[in-house]
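Page 47, continued from p. 46.
Same chain as before, 336 aa.
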Amino acid sequence: MSADSTSQNPNPMTAPVQRPKTTGLHVGDARPGVSKVDPIIVADNVTRTFGGLTAVDVEHLEIPRNAITALIGPNGAGKTTLFNLLTGFDKPNTGTWSYDGKDLARVPAHKVARMGLVRTFQLTKALGRLSVMDNMKLGQTGQRGERFWHSLIPALWRSQDREIEDRADELLVKFKLDAKRDDLAAGLSGGQKKLLEMARALMTSPNLVMLDEPMAGVNPALTQSLLDHILDLKDEGMTVLFVEHDMHMVRHIADWVVVMAEGKVVAEGAPDEVMKNPAVIDAYLGAHQELDLGVVTGRIPVIHADPTTDAAASAAVDVTALESEASAELDKEDTK
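Result:
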């Protein structure tokens, strides 16, 4: 695998350096089920039916290690159901799959998480009546104080609890939630809850992070922050698999794209190659959007804008005004 270098974005107000994409992930021509050079997940003949409806019918799928893979497709394509199967939250009708060479079939979700594969959810699972810090600490496995007899003797678990709290504080600072440390999670905005869920997932130092629609319902003011955190995961040596409907963001951060429709994998490839396929664009990507959010956020230069969007209009967006509007919306959420 190798990384292609890219140019710096010319907009200094919101534009970090665009990070290199990982290439050389597959063997042979890109096609559904193509073999990967170093897969971290391998799935074969995985099916899941609900009554007479086949939600997932994946013949063969490999997810490349140390890369960001986007799982895309229309609503009802089976993406979240596949997530549930791979992470032990649901049981398939048929099929086998492995993570890092270990068989995951019939392994319950809590044991999957202990193995280093964690996920977030489409609807955030923050515990609203607990503080942000307590939510973070719940993400840590192997806590001695969770055992009944040990819990009665604080000396057995107090030092470990301090270490867990220190780890949580580091992540809260990184995700810019440290100011909310002692607040109830119920008081966070939708975007902040997404950040909290991602931060909590990292408490176990996982190898593979699976994000189910991380941008869904997130205010534009927090979009760039979430994107940067996803890119940071790869820089820190983790593998990322995420579901997303915002195809511009997929194009800018994903190294590899898997397209699902009606439960099947119908296409795979690098983002630019997948999006050149007219059938995929029209049927699955909904490409005819007015603005290229990559240009709006300053992540890519105007000359590299998606040709199906209005590049000039995207470049003309006042990011400061957009962020002010977003902050106002966040304030409205906080007063509800």
